[in-house]
């Protein structure tokens, strides 16, 4: 008998089959026919992947029929910010400075649902943007079944040097306490010993990976941003008003990577320019994010070093789409050059700068750049797992194999013929649990439930002086597997 308000933890252990007619295998980069996947909902794992001899199959009670759809592993977004929403609605500074922690957490909960229903079963979340380690807390809530969402691999606070990645305001008044007080945007660390200590702090705060700002536009206050009204504009600003410049020396970058290796977690390096990106690649980071400009003319040297070091590039083209048209075109051409050269790509849009649930835009743009459909899908699955650290993440996901997480999605159309197919996700399973079926959300909200027999009959409870009130508990919805002919 469940105690009042207790959460039942028993999960069905009987396996079931997911039958497909067309399935994308990202390891082989092929679309395979007539594959069935056996899933154990008790462990959330794939038990077996079987090639059927024909299109026909027997469907048993609890099996799932996805024939007629295009089945993929759950998608991985390799660059997200779960606590940020579209900059078109409110810019990043305003969100970090003005929105309450409660509002941002509520929004993040909604973002997690939107991402999951869009087919993204894993998020590599690269910084809370002024909310400390709240991403680790949200990750834990999802892992405990308190709220639905992608599997979160989180960075907590990003690392940056003094005076680099912070909320910039002119109203400081010399630091005498009379100026505007703003939240901390990063974990400030300087020097070899300082950055090693910062990595240890991040690990202690629950980080799954380290994010470091290899460069940033840190000279904002030399020529402050223009504001409306008389006297609000710098009259003669330089052509490169606030370029991205390195935040860390090569020695500091190497120390960050070495300390992260001791903790057995990967490192993601933000780099707007090729110069800092090259330093990061040489230091041995796992991934480099962005690379929007090549002022130093180091593009070819960078690609060579990234290929040699097996550094993954997460180009975040979906956020670059907001840049001026000529700059965005340059970014796309750079991605095509890197792809042709053999640089490893992972799909991550800097999601949050545009709204969660629209994550697939990154894969669409990769294909527009000239990346094959198969390679673009691989960038959003297996390469995403590698960006999360591979086996260092503690899980295997992004392809179909015995022992991997049972993350399965289905599309209504074929991405080889429909460029918007990834927007048409009709089925989502994560860890063996169905969250979307026939295009509709399933069991997204827990509701109070009466146990079948609470031990209290009307006769036994008629005397208020004897007996106890009926017991009531909150139920975490368990997987409900239905046959082909049953409604959802």
UniProtKB/TrEMBL annotation:
Q: Name one GO molecular function term.
A: hydrolase activity, acting on carbon-nitrogen (but not peptide) bonds
Residues annotated as domain Amidohydrolase-related:
70-433
Gene3D superfamilies in alphabetical order: Metal-dependent hydrolases (3.20.20.140), Urease, subunit C, domain 1 (2.30.40.10)
SUPFAM superfamilies linked: Composite domain of metallo-dependent hydrolases, Metallo-dependent hydrolases
Q: Which UniProt keywords apply?
A: Hydrolase
Q: Does the keyword Hydrolase apply?
A: yes
Question: Which InterPro entries is this protein grouped with?
Answer: Amidohydro-rel (IPR006680), Metal-dep_hydrolase_composite (IPR011059), Metal_Hydrolase (IPR032466), Metallo-dep_Hydrolase (IPR051781), OTAase-like (IPR057744)
Record-linked Pfam families = Amidohydro_1 (PF01979)
Entry keyword Acyltransferase = no
The entry's protein name is Xaa-Pro dipeptide hydrolase
Please tell me the species this chain comes from. Triangularia verruculosa
């Amino acid at each position: 008998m469940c105690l009042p308000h207790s959460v039942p933890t028993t999960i069905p252990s009987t396996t079931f089959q997911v039958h497909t007619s067309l399935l994308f295998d990202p390891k082989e980069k092929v679309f395979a026919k007539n594959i069935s996947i056996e899933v154990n909902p008790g462990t959330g794992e794939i038990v077996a992947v079987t090639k059927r001899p024909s299109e026909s199959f027997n469907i048993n009670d609890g099996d799932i029929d996805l024939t007629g759809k295009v089945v993929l592993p759950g998608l991985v977004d390799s660059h997200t910010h779960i606590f940020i929403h579209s900059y078109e609605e409110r810019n990043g500074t305003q969100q970090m400075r003005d929105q309450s922690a409660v509002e941002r957490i509520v929004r993040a909960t909604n973002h997690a649902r939107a991402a999951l229903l869009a087919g993204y079963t894993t998020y590599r979340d690269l910084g809370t943007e002024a909310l400390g380690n709240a991403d680790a807390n949200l990750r834990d809530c999802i892992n405990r079944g308190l709220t639905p969402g992608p599997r979160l691999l989180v960075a907590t606070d990003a690392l940056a040097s003094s005076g680099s990645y912070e909320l910039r305001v002119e109203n400081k008044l010399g630091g005498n306490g009379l100026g505007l007080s703003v939240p901390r945007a990063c974990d400030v660390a300087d020097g070899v010993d300082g950055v090693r200590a910062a990595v240890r702090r991040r690990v202690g705060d629950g980080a799954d990976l380290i994010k470091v700002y290899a460069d940033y536009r840190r000279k904002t206050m030399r020529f402050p941003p223009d504001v409306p009204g008389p006297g609000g504009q710098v009259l003669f600003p330089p052509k490169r008003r606030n370029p991205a410049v390195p935040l860390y020396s090569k020695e500091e970058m190497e120390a960050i990577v070495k300390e992260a290796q001791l903790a057995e977690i990967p490192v993601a390096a933000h780099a707007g320019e090729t110069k800092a990106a090259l330093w990061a690649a040489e230091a041995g980071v796992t991934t480099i994010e962005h690379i929007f400009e090549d002022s130093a003319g180091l593009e070819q040297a960078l690609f060579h070093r990234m290929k040699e070091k097996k550094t993954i590039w997460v180009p975040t083209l979906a956020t670059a789409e907001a840049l001026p048209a000529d700059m965005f075109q340059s970014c796309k051409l750079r991605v095509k050059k890197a792809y042709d050269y053999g640089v490893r790509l992972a799909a991550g849009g800097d999601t949050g700068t545009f709204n969660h649930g629209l994550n697939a835009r990154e894969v669409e743009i990769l294909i527009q750049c000239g990346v094959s459909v198969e390679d673009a899908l691989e960038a959003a699955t297996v390469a995403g797992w590698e960006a999360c650290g591979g086996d260092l993440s503690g899980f295997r996901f992004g392809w179909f194999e015995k022992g991997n997480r049972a993350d399965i999605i289905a599309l209504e159309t074929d991405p080889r013929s429909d460029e918007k197919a990834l927007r048409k996700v009709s089925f989502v399973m994560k860890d063996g649990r169905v969250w979307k079926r026939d295009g509709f959300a399933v069991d997204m909200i827990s509701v109070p439930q009466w146990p079948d027999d609470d031990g209290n009959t009307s006769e036994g409870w008629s005397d208020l002086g004897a007996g106890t009130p009926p017991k009531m508990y909150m139920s975490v919805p368990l997987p409900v597997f239905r046959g082909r002919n049953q409604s959802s």
